[in-house]
Amino acid sequence: MGARAGLAGVGVRQPSRGVKLEDGDRFGVRLATVASVAAERRLEELAALTARITDCRACPRLVAWREQVAHDRRAAYRDEVYWGRPVPSFGDPDARVLVVGLAPAAHGGNRTGRIFTGDRSGDWLFASLYRTGFANQPNSVRAGDGLVLRDAYVAAAVRCAPPANKPAPDERDRCLPYLLREIELLSRVRVVVVLGGFAYDVCARAFGLRPRPPFGHLVEVPIPAQGPILADGRDRWLLCSYHPSQQNTFTGKLTAEMLDAVFARARRLAGELPEGPSA
Ligand code: SF4
User: Fold this and answer.
1) Residue 23 in domain
2) What strands, in cross-sheet order, belong to the sheet with 152-156?
């Protein structure tokens, strides 16, 4: 959306000829304009952040791995050009629900360039987001496949595919500022759904949770209103879910009903809160 389009859009009312503008209207126009400009700046900053992420080469081990995988490719994807770079987040910038996973899969996000896209975990995640009303379609095959998220934004704690799905502590810490900045920019987020213990640990540290309850499916933890980020006094929650990894879904540790229950709960937590301005 260009700058002019934004100013001409949301909520900016122009007085019609010959109609006296009341003080309240003037005030309303000014507030709407400020909100529109702020929202537009937020979108630009999210786009700039995404550009920075996709160019990042800060972790030598992960850079080498993601590029090696992209070069070698899996036999089933032999004819595809892998993304082979850090995988940016995806979703609705006005989302009230942020979903945080571990890291892109070597032949999933690292191949398609979209988080949780093109692998079994993503099949489970987006099917559940569809069933619970956060996605317009149940499938997530490739970037540009028509998938649109509403009120949800999907990110990962670490943006590059790690060997054996295990980022090292220094890699986790190096990538954290991207998630922190994203959370700051996603100012409408009220519920952070963490998929698995790794994402829970990263988010719990980011939000300064103390004491930190043990991770468990459907465990929900209030985020401190005056924590290190988003210190605006609003109520927010961390909501835990088992990761939709094949290990968990094959063994029945996580069922489709259990995952749906997480997003249904996230919707309720987000919806129970009063609406704030979109800025
Ligand atoms: S894991 Fe994060 S910090 Fe490390 S190279 Fe990838 S994007 Fe950069």
Assistant:
1) no
2) 90-91, 152-156, 97-101, 191-195, 236-241, 220-223
